[in-house]
Amino acid sequence: SSNASWPPEFQPGVPWKGIPNI
Amino acid sequence: QEPLTASMLAAAPPQEQKQMLGERLYPLIHAMHPSLAGKITGMLLEIDNSELLLMLESPESLHSKIEEAVAVLQVHQM
């Protein structure tokens, strides 16, 4: 089974909740 | 819309930088893959900002990255 929440979905106009640059 | 530059990005906080890149990438990706655009953009945002900037300047490399991401997504979703 796979991790269905990956990758986080980008939506225009919605603040990005993914990882920032390391 | 003026092109996004490294100095514009550097002036923003890290989370905001990804947002700025995502806002530029999303319409380009949406034109190719409307149903997967959000997921593909999310995947590509895991790439280094400097590389993402180069991709925005080079449609050819962006397109090949998008196709790569679609292939990964399709395997992932199986």
Instruction: Quote the beta fraction of chain B.
Output: under 5%
Using only C-alpha atoms, the radius of gyration of chain B works out to 12 Å
What's the quaternary structure here?
Answer: heterodimer
Largest interface (C-beta under 8 Å): A-B, 15 and 24 residues
Helicity level of chain A, as a percent range? Answer: under 10%
Task: Give a written overview of the molecule.
The complex is a heterodimer of chains A (22) and B (78). The model of chain A has no long low-confidence stretch (mean pLDDT 77). Chain A has 22 residues and is largely without helices or strands. Chain B has 78 residues and is an all-alpha fold. Helix content of chain B is 76%, strand content 0%. Chain B is built from five helices and no strands. In chain B, helix 2 crosses helix 3, helix 3 crosses helix 5 and helix 4 packs across helix 5. The relative contact order of chain B is 0.15. Classes of the chains: A little secondary structure (22), B mainly alpha (78).
Q: Can you tag this structure with a few keywords?
A:
heterodimer, A: 22 residues, little secondary structure, B: 78 residues, mainly alpha, 5 helices, globular
